[in-house]
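Field reference: sequence -> structure
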Amino acid sequence: MQLNELIRLALAEDLGEGDHSAKACIPENSNQKAFIYAKSDGVLSGIAVACEVFKQVDPVLEIEPVKTDAEPVANGDKVMLIKGSARSILAGERLALNFLQRMSGVAGLTRQFVEAVEGTGVKILDTRKTTPLLRALQKQAVLHGGGENHRFGLYDMIMLKENHIAFAGGISKALDAVKKYQQENNTNLQVEIETRNIDEVREVLKNEVANRIMLDNFTVEEAKKAVQLIDKRMETEISGGINLSTVRSYAETGVDFISVGALTHSAPILDLSLLAED
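Structure field:
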């Protein structure tokens, strides 16, 4: 879904027939200004989205970002100035904050993971565990936090997970089928396959179809042995329950990527507020 359409629908959901609260107590010709402030420390994401919200509410509003996407922000910092119709400012307030808070939350959590593995060469990846129809924004926020995007959807990579392998009849049968599929469809999509133990890693290594092997829910010691066994013959990715207290240990195994679903499904919001200025 295009951003313009997403915002249009979100505004329709919030405004309905109009903001009766503002209409009831604020004159139609009242012009004011307000700042969006940070109420906690974090990393910003969603500035452009918030600007678009206010533009759709009222193209005449003057919007002046003070901070930019991917920029660190501290409690009390001014983030954005909005000037113009008081009614219009209030009409866009909640939706703009909703986008900014959630995207900034993703960016901030991503930055924490990236900083936790600094110096190891490991790249932090997101997953498809996103809010429906907000995936593009959440993945953009991961980039603002210094992470990288995994596949966007089911269409841009061949990724064989536990259920694919089970339905196909096992790892070898699944990879043989993928090789045939690639030949018949003349596709060069990247191939990743999930493994749950060292024996499955060995089975994957017998086949030259996969470009990347995922070590799913491995312990640190198991992951270290697997990375040594793979020995750069394909890319390596670790996934499954990785958190800020364990990510450094996993990064030091020599793996190429660590994917973290929590970046998009469990990130706490960045606390932000819009306040009228005298």
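Note: The chain is about 45% helix and 20% strand.
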